[in-house]
Structure formats: C-alpha cells, structure tokens
Design brief:
The structure holds 2 protein chains of 2 kinds. Chain A is of the alpha+beta class. Chain A is 33% helix and 19% strand. Chain A contains 25 helices and 32 strands. In chain A, β17 and β18 form a beta hairpin. In chain A, α6 crosses α9. The termini of chain A are far apart. The mean pLDDT of chain B is 95.
C-alpha cells in the first residue's frame, strides 16, 4: 500500500515540478516558468534591488591595459575616468550591459528580424513573424553586414567596437541565471553574446527609425486619383513660410552633376494607372521622428558665451533609449547621452565644445519595378538584356516551430523588398527593388568618435564630413565662440519628383544619377543673426536649390524657434529652458482664425456654440489644462478629412494615401484653392469650404462630450501621454502623464512620442549644462532608478550636468558607488 | 523535536541546494530528509512543507521590504494578482512549500 502511495506522490511531485518548470499557455499567452520565476533565489525576486543598494565593485581583467575608475553620482550617472581610450569603451560596454542588457539585446533582435526566435510567431495579437519578414526584406542584415565591413576597415572604430563588445561580453559572462534582467525571466530565454555585427544592426535600426520613412506607394496611389494640379496643391514641394535651416548662399554651380529627367517621364512615370486593392498591413517608423536644435552666439547671451540646445523627438520607451554618462580619458573628457548598443556619446559636450543632432527628414529610399523572366527571380531585364539576380536566403527561426525562409533577389537596383510572395501595400503583384542609402556601407560611428574629441570648428567639420545615413543636422558651438550648423549625410541628386512615386526599373534612366556634392551642402557658420537652428524643416531654400530634395519637413517648429530667437537678447540658460519647453501652438495661430471665419453659426446648437466659445477664447497654449488645445486638435483632424477624404479615398479609410498636412489645408484656404476639394464629390450638393469646416466642427461635438464625461477634456488628460515599456507591459510603463505639448509644438510631447533627451549647454569656462530624459539610468523595473527622471521631465525641469574632475567627484558626498576596473 | 529539526533542515538544505543546482533541487533534499529522518506521512508532509514555505516566504518578505515593494507590486499586476504584494508572497511561499511537502511525503512513504 505504502509503495503504491509513494509512487503516487512521487508522480504528483514530479508532475508539479514539470508544470512549474515549463511555460504554460493560459488564455493564449505564455506564462513564465512559474516555479523558477517565483523562486526567491532564482526568479524575479532577485531583480528587486534593495532601495539603499550601492554599486561598488573591483573588477580585474587581463584584457585591460590600464586602470579605470567609475563613480556613480546621486542620479546613478557614471563618471568614467580611464587611463586610455580603449579601456574607456570597454567600460562603457560593460556599463551599458550592466544597466541595459535586455533592451540592447532585444533591439538588435528586432533590427535583425529575429523576434520570432524569442517571442514565437505571434503573441498578444502581434505577428512577430510579419515584423521579422519586414526587417529581413528591408535588407537590414544586408545593410548591417556592409556597415560592419566599413567599421572593420577603420582602425579607430574597430578598436572602439572591439573593446565595447568585449566589455558587454565580460558582463554577460559574469551572469548567473538569477542575475538575468527580469524580461528574460518573463519570456524565458537567455542573453546571447554581443558582437560588432550587433552594434552595426543597432546603427541600422537608427537608420530605419530616422531615414526609413517613405510614402512612395501611398503617393503613387494618390497620383492615380488626382489631377496634377490637385496633387501639387495637396502635396506641395515648396511650402510657403518654411524657413530653411541653412541660409548661406550656394556657390556658383560649376562641376556639379547635371541630372537628366528621363525622356519618357510623362508617359511612364507621371501616369495614372495603378489598380487599388485592400491595404496590406505596413510597418513604418513614426513620421514625427524629428528634433529641435539650435545654438545662439555670445552676442545674444548674457554671459557672452554661446549656448547650445538640443532635444531629439523619438518614441518614448522604458527602459529609455538613452543612457547618460561622462567619459574621461587622457585624450578627451566628454559628457552626454549615449545609446546602449555601440560605443558613443551621441549628443553632448566635451571640455571645449558641444554638439547636437536633429533628423534631416530627407527621402533617401526609392522603389523600382523589376521585370523578372519568371517567378524564380533568377533573371531580370535591365538595360536591354537579361541580368542574373543574386539570391539571398534569410532564414527566420521561430520558437517552438519550424523555421521560415525568405528568398530575396538582389538586383543592381537593390534587394527586392516586395514580390508576389511578399506583396506590397497596393497588392500590385509586382516586384519592387528598394534602393536605400542605408544599404550602402558607411561608418557613422567614426563621426561620433571624432565628435567626442572635437576641439573646434575645424574638428567638427572633419568629423561630420563622412557621415552618411540617417542624414542629420549637426549643430555645434565652442568656447572660442563659434556656432555652426550643417546637414551631414549622403543624399541623391534628383530631378523634380524623382522617387516620390514607384519608378520603372528596366533601365538605368530612372536610377539615381549622382550624389549631391559637398559644395552644395554648405555649412552655416556664425551668421549675422546670431543663431543657427533646425527643427526638421527643409535644409536649403527648395525654391532655388539646383536639385529636388524631398522629405517630410516640419513647418511650424522651425518657424517658431526662429521667431523667438530673433526677438531674444541677453539670453540665459533659463530662457533656453523656457524655449525648449515652449507650448505655443503656431499651427493654431495660423489656422484658427481661418476656421473661425469659415464657421456658419446658424448651424450650431447651444452646446456646439459653447465649445466654439471655448476654442475662440483659447490662448493658443498647448498646456495640460487647456481645453482649447483639445478642441482645436480634433477639429483640425476632422477638417482635413472632411475637405480631402472624398477626393483621396472615396471615404474608404483602408486605401493607402499620404497624409495631408495641416499647413496644406491652411495654405489652401488662404489661396482659396481649397475650392478644388471642398465639394464632397459623393453628394449632389456643391459644398463650400465653409460647409466643410462647419460640418467638421459639428462632427467633433460627440467626441468632446464623451471626453467631458470621462473628465478628459483638458489637453493633458485627452492626450494621455506616457512612456511605455518596450514590450508594452503596462506595470513596467509610466502612463497617464498629465502634461502639455504636441505635434508641431516646440515641446513635442505627443502621446508616446516626444523630446527623448533635453540638453542645454552654455559654453562658459567650466561649462554650465543641464539635461533630462524621460526614463532612468537603470533598465531594471525593480530598481528605484528605473523611471525616476520621468516626473522631472514631465514638469519641464532639468538636472545640472557635471563634467567632473576626478578628484572632485571622488570626494563627492552622495555617491551611489564606485567601480574599479584594472588588470 | 524531530519535527522542528526536519523543518529547519528542509529550509537549510532547501536554501543550499539551489545555490549549486536548478531552482527545484530543494525537492530532492526534502525527499532525502524525509527518507532519513522518519516521521508519519502527515507530519513529514507538514514539516517539509513548512520548511520551504517559511524559507521562500521569509526570503520574499525580506527582499520585498528592502525593495520597498517596488517590483512585487508590478509583478503582481502582470501575473495577475490585482497588484497584491501579500498575495504574491503567499503564492511564492505556497509554491515552494507544496513541492517540498509532496517530495517529503514521498520520502516518508518509501520508508516502511
């Protein structure tokens, strides 16, 4: 009996252990291995850091050549003092891994199209296999391999990357199962060794995020729906009132490439033929990825020294994209925001100068229709003969399933992103090769590694001259008093509207014929007006520029920054903080009076009139408490749809079309060209712009009533901003942040997107710098340093940033720890 | 007395074994303890259960207090336990306790 009993309970015990040691599927979701996860010795409890934890360590490693001391200040920002540069990058790799390992690893899985390996083919309604296929077909791995080659060919970059990778791996190898970041325990996988290729993938991920936006399929579609006149009016190249970043006059055009428009362009390219079918789900970077940066000269500041400001607008996530640190070596001493994933201080300052970046927003991504001989994609027709395509197999491993393979044909025009097996958004069943500047081997890290040691204007010019993709506006200021701005990047020289639409790929006539020479990308140095600025607007005066330079340029932020800076004198750091967090809505200043002029009061009931009064008495500030901002924001959206939707998509929201910008509606109303679109072509009556604007207002009343009932009529609550965890886990996120801001506002905090790092540097003798980002230095949700900056950031406050000398910080009072790395 | 010795020993070895082996290695030590220090099946179950229940429970409480309940509150939303830290600690302790208890019961039943 007892034997039977013991066997029975042995089976029960083993079964229990089996179920608690394996992932279970509950309600379509995988649980962690619960026994392991709950174990106080191995599981998540080990990630719960003591609130008074100190970060001390003494680490001896044979690969180090000198001594490096790391002091963690009261915000857990490491101040690294290394005997030599190589050790410094090693320690940066170690620290990035120690505080941000999971995010670095996860982001490179995403960039490489490998998420299915850890997440399975789908989970929580997200198809990871589709995301993976997209990144593979975009040529991310292909591009990263080329960048890796460029890194390996440059001794300085290679040395920094090798040291960085060794630092990351030293940390990874020191880990036991219990030490893994909690996300590994939740998803049940292990960190894999870091490689230089992973750093290259990370850089390509930035290229995707910042230079991966295109609307070529949407525009091709719009072209088939609109007359040329309508198209030009809706998607204008030259935007009135846009103030270009660089106003330096261009040199005389000698020895610059002459770009020829193909002869058959009217019949083949500017045609109206594409068949429309349902939308294929597409993945796109956020269109509003952008930024503000500016520098004011000493002539405009109270201290007589330049002040440089920068705030890059990106998706806001926890753990944050940024990691703050100081790195001091005998060659340079720098402080700023680094990106875990590669050796860098991307935006920051050193003991003599400061620099910042905004995105160029240029279109560097075109598609060509390829004619293959048959569906095996082995041969394609190009320049009157059959060419052999190289075939690249991308194998996508899937957790708990058989792997999947994507066959990608590579042509002279680029890898074939879309084919009948992987259809494009328009379901044309055609083959489209992608030409993207990011595919070309380039070494952007070289620029970053030069900027950290840049002493003056000459060094800055030298550093930024090789930068290719994603094209950036580099702002610069130094203690000598120079301020400068240049757009650095590799851009094709295009003919008018080249690459806006899908291009024929049967011959070389539609290819990029040349890249824009440096002489036509002038630098702006110490302009008379006393400041340089950029906010993702057109780089040069498009009206007169010798080439077509398309992009998704922002009108309002740049305009408002310039308006403010022009009027300011005796500028202090405090003034700059106020400008960087400015909430004035210039879009509303321009649009609201036109809307109010075009409203038909007789159509409004009492309730609607009440809301109209609220918006007409609004002070045009997008602050958290503003109701006017809420009303205007949805009124604008609704008006754009009312005026343009019927022409663009026949009111079928599934048809891919480009977005019409608010500035286009404003300029259409002013020029009276909105008449072109005001009539709803689906009704027998002839609507006027007045009808559309009034109808748009009436249609938003139920939305406003609903918001009022939910007590979310105020802009901060209506916008409902936040900083979500990378996996979207709300307990690991910081949500419902009641703060102002918005699209087209200098303080560009939208819902989950906005100023991801705010920095202000006054180049006084000892450097007077401030900064903040919506996150925290630790990537561990179980640490109090995980999201401790978010409230400061949301309240528009800053922390002082210190470029410490070692003897000063070594005796600092509130240190959170000291780590020593040596042989 | 025997009972208390088994509780303490289960806890001690239940702590030591996972330092070197996988998280569930305490099941083996609890089994061996119950095999060697014989008690009636019910008492063996309760003693080995308590050993791990107390070990995991106290460790969780200890860690949680030092952490100011920061992570437990978040995990108790993910798992989902309505954010109840106490419930999370209780489930943690019960998980260790039950496995250990059944392993101990098995060991006790094998003797005689």
């Amino acid at each position: 009996m007892r034997i039977a009993g013991s066997i029975f309970f042995a089976i029960i015990t083993i079964t229990l252990i089996y179920f608690l040691d394996n992932q279970l599927t509950v309600g379509g979701q995988k649980t962690p291995r619960l026994g392991y996860f709950l174990s106080p010795q191995k599981g998540f409890w080990q990630n719960a850091e003591p609130a008074d934890k100190k970060y001390n360590a003494d680490i001896h490693l044979p690969q180090l050549s000198g001594k490096t001391e790391v002091y963690f200040d009261e915000r857990l920002v490491p101040h690294v003092f290394a005997d030599n540069e190589k050790d410094a990058w090693f320690v940066q790799g170690y620290l990035h891994a120690k505080f941000r390992l999971w995010q670095m690893d996860f982001q490179t899985y995403a960039a490489a199209g490998r998420l299915s390996e850890i997440m399975g083919d789908s989970a929580n309604g997200i198809s990871f296999i589709n995301i993976d296929k997209f990144f593979r077909r975009l040529g991310m791995v292909y591009a990263a391999e080329k960048t890796l080659q460029a890194i390996e060919n440059d001794p300085r970059t290679k040395s920094a990357c090798d040291a960085y990778t060794a630092g990351v791996n030293t940390y990874i190898h020191s880990l036991n199962e219990k030490d893994y970041p909690v996300e590994y325990k939740l998803l049940n996988y292990k960190p894999e060794p870091w490689t230089n290729l992973k750093s290259a993938l990370f850089i390509k991920y930035l290229a995707y995020d910042l230079a991966g936006y295109d609307e070529d399929f949407e525009k091709t579609n719009a072209k088939s729906l609109l007359t040329k006149k309508q198209y030009e009016s809706l998607f204008p190249y030259v935007v009135d009132s846009m103030q270009s970043i660089i106003t330096t006059p261009l040199p005389k055009l000698v020895n610059v490439p002459n770009v020829k428009t193909p002869k058959n362009v009217d019949s083949v390219y500017f045609d109206y033929k594409t068949q429309i079918e349902p939308l294929n789900e597409a993945i796109k970077p956020n269109k509003n990825n952008g930024s503000n940066n500016w520098a004011v000269a000493g002539s405009k500041t109270k201290s007589g020294r330049p002040v440089l400001c920068n705030d890059p607008h990106l998706n806001l996530n926890l753990p944050s994209l940024w990691y703050e640190m100081q790195i001091s070596t005998p060659i340079f001493n720098t402080y700023g925001a680094s990106l875990p994933g590669a050796p860098n201080i991307l935006i920051g300052f050193n003991s003599t100068s400061a620099w910042g970046l905004t995105n160029s927003e240029r279109d560097v991504k075109d598609y060509y229709e390829i004619q293959f001989r048959d569906s095996t994609m082995q041969e394609y027709w190009f320049d009157s003969s059959w060419h052999t395509a190289e075939l690249r197999d991308e194998i996508i491993k899937i957790r708990n399933k058989k792997s999947d393979t994507e066959h990608i044909a590579i042509t002279v025009l680029g890898p074939v992103m879309y084919d009948p097996h992987y259809p494009d958004k328009l379901h044309t069943n055609k083959y489209y090769a992608l030409h993207w500047v990011a595919h070309e081997g380039s070494n952007e890290l070289a620029t970053v590694l030069k900027m950290v040691r840049a002493k003056n204007y000459t060094d800055y010019i030298e550093a930024t001259s090789t930068f290719q993709c994603p094209g950036q506006n580099f702002v610069f200021a130094d203690k000598a008093g120079d301020i400068a701005m240049r757009q650095a990047g590799k851009f094709p020289a295009l003919w008018y509207r080249q690459g806006d639409f899908l291009k024929p790929g049967q011959d070389s006539s539609y290819m990029w014929q040349a890249y824009i020479p440096d002489s036509l990308q002038p630098v702006m140095l110490n302009p008379e007006r006393g400041f340089v600025s950029s906010a993702n607007q057109e780089p040069y005066v498009t009206r007169t520029y010798p080439y077509y330079i398309p992009g998704t340029y922002n009108l309002y932020r740049g305009w408002l920054i310039n308006r403010n800076l022009s009027a300011m004198h005796n500028i202090t750091v405090n003034d700059m903080m106020q400008l960087q967090t400015n909430l004035y809505n210039l879009e509303a200043e321009k649009a609201l009076p036109l809307f109010l002029n075009n409203i038909d009061h007789t159509k409004l009931d009492e309730n609607a009139s009440k809301y109209l009064n609220l918006v007409s008495s609004w002070n045009l500030m997008n602050d958290a408490k503003s109701v006017g901002a809420t009303i205007f924001s949805i009124w604008m959206d609704s008006a754009i749809h009312k005026v343009y939707d019927d022409e663009l998509n026949g009111n079928n929201p599934n048809i891919p079309i480009p977005e019409v910008e608010p500035s286009t509606l404003v300029s259409n109303i002013i020029k009276d060209s909105a008449k072109l679109f005001a009539d709803n072509i689906n009704t027998p009556e002839i609507e006027t712009i007045k009808d559309d604007i009034t109808d748009a207002f009436i249609s938003i009343i139920p939305v406003l009533e609903k918001a009022k009932n939910n007590k979310s009529l105020e802009w901060g609550k209506f916008k409902d901003g936040g900083v979500p965890h990378l996996l979207g886990l709300s307990p690991f996120s910081k949500l419902h942040i009641d703060a102002g801001g918005g699209e087209n506002i200098i303080n560009a905090f939208e819902k989950y997107h906005g100023p991801s790092w705010r920095m202000i540097v006054e180049l006084t003798d000892d450097i007077n710098a401030y900064g903040v980002y919506p996150g925290g230095q630790s990537g561990n949700p179980g640490s109090k340093y995980y999201d401790d900056f978010v409230d400061t950031w949301a309240k528009e406050k800053y922390y002082p940033l210190h470029l410490y000398k070692e003897d000063i910080i070594a005796t600092g009072k509130n240190l959170l720890g000291k780590m020593v790395f040596s042989k | 007395m025997k009972f208390i010795i088994v509780v303490l020993l289960t806890a001690l070895l239940g702590f030591a074994a996972p330092l070197y082996f996988t998280w569930w290695s305490f099941a083996v030590s609890s089994f061996v303890i119950a095999l060697l220090i014989h008690q009636k099946p019910l008492m063996a179950f309760i003693a080995t259960f308590l050993g791990l229940f107390l070990l995991w429970g106290i460790m969780a409480i200890w860690i949680d207090n030092a952490n100011n309940h920061l992570l437990s509150g978040k995990i108790a939303l993910i798992l989902p336990l309505q954010g109840s830290t106490i419930l999370l600690i209780l489930i943690t302790a019960l998980t260790g306790g039950i496995i250990s208890g059944f392993a101990g019961l098995t060991g006790s039943l094998i003797r005689k």
